[in-house]
Amino acid sequence: MKKNLYTIAVLLIGFIVGLTACSPDDYSLGGSISKDELIFSVKQDAQDPNTVYLEALNKGASVAWVTPQGRSLRAKDTLRIAFPGDYEFTYGVMTDAGYVKADPYILKITTTNLNYVQDEMWKLLTGGVGNEKVWVPDTGKYGMKQGFYSCFDPTSTYKDMVAEANTPYNWYARDKTWWEPGNADVGITDDDLNSTMIFSLKGKAGLTVHRFTDGVEAVLNGVFDMNTTAHTISAVDVDFLHGAWTNGKAVDFRNGFQVLVLTENQLMIGNYRDEALSGEGKCVYSWNFVSKEWADSYVPEPEAPEPTEPTLPDGWKEDVSENETTITSTTIQWTLSTKSPVNWASQSGKLLNTWNSPADYPEWLGTPNPATYSDFAMTLDSKTLKATFTIPGGSAVETNYTLDEKGIYTFDVEIPAVTIVNWLTFRLSSTHTLRILQIIKDATGAVSDMWVGIPNPDNPDKEYIAYRMNPKAIGLGGGETAEEKVMKTLATQAWMLDMDGKVSYAHPTEGTFVGPTACYGWGGNWAPGKGTHYTTGLISDGKTENMNYGTMKFTKDGKVTVNQRRFKYEADGEGGVPYELTTQIPAMTTNARVTSEEVVTLQGTYTVDLSNNKIRMSVPMLHPYSATNMCNDWGDLEIIHISSTSLLLTVYRKAEVESVAPWVYVFTPEKIN
User: Fold this and answer.
1) How many domains does the chain have?
2) CA dist 219 to 207, 213, 256, Å?
3) Are residues 191 and 325 in the same domain?
């Protein structure tokens, strides 16, 4: 027998649905339950009808509600709805057969409680009670996001959103950002960008959408609700604005939205791509908006005009022309890169595509196979100004050349075209030239790559076809590898941590690094001073450890000795009983303190791998011991810079501590310290 159960009390309106007379059983995830067995309760508070209580009455069930304020997985939940209206609630549970849901229940609310829309988020979104606020898609030209759409990992929430000090409006999901394309790159149309949303608190939580389709405007009206605790938002009778290209790829565009970012002039809301509908994996579609007031008043900072030709660094001519004094060779053999042999570049020499490996190349061009061009070489002797081009198949072309002050090589003869990938070849220009576009140096200051180019025949005044070349000095007793040079530099002295910040290293993209350490990765860095952070010796409550951490000594034949000062720590546990800290970060543990210290000598081996910009040690690198548990591997090191006076090496903080992040440690020779 089926029955509906209703309970009504004075000033209490409740709804309990029981589509069976049986007692609730235990339906845990993976169990079996039918729609007829779903039992739930939706009640209004007796004193405040705008407060609604949800309760799942199927014992042990894995619950999934759909409410006016978004989805909820709580067996019991409380919603606070400010305005009158008809609100829909859907109750369901997860079973081994999938999601089983009851018919939607409509709750009529007749009262108003403006206390529920006084939170700062309501004011930022709407302008406050009695006001409305217009939001427009971010075109990428308002100094905030790169465009209307961003793609984040499906686990991303508002808690993951960060913006760096030098780009305070460029919010993104730290370690969870998958793609942030320009509007044109993903199919955002003028119709999308001309549409607007108006959030209002004029008598109701109103949402008005002005949507354009094929240039024709439609005005759509509905209501919305927001849960400021859960940072969720939903709409009734109208979709939130989104790129039309995602239609049919999400379950809907009204429910299940997160408020990822909300400030006075910036709004980012996200819903989920559906795997079944899209044929792709789940992700967060983030829709990025700015307030109309900001859009109307924004004046972009004028961009500096792009240089009309490449700008090469000081000393570039010596860099690409080895000399007998320092290298005992004047001949360099240049070969095409096996990682990214070709690209296009602007008139200033800036690369137009981010292709760093064969897998990065697009389908329309194809994937370069280094075996196709591995026998090609361009050998230049800067003393005799003779060039030899070795062509795949065994032939060679010898010629004279010149190199002018602009970085333009001019050869006496043409050479045969060398296939790189499909139809794209290495060749000289119609006037037998190659122009140097960029010179790239490794951490030791040696040239590792040179981009040369010819004018793009399709746009000769504005673009180059660019070729990436790697050098090797040959002849006259040369032949020491770049790795051997690094090992020789490392072995010249013992190294100590630069605890007093004596080194100042200007990184090309991340600002100036100052010792002892800096966290970076957003086009800038943060450098905590000595003893102010667990990465630099802080223990607890302003207490520091002995910050003379010892020395690190390398040999030219691949051996390393680390004299590491180690510490033991303890903290007060339950009932004030001390316990030893073994896996914790001391500064992240209340009342941590040092109990003993010692200097331990660790002997191991190391290798230098410049192709991956790495030093790998079999023992941990010298480091502040307060940071020992920060990293999974203190022997896997990225090279930032190596010279006779400074050494900068990066380790990665593990996710369990705070989040994965690069930290560079700065070393100086022991004699300088």
Assistant:
1) 4
2) 11, 11, 23
3) no
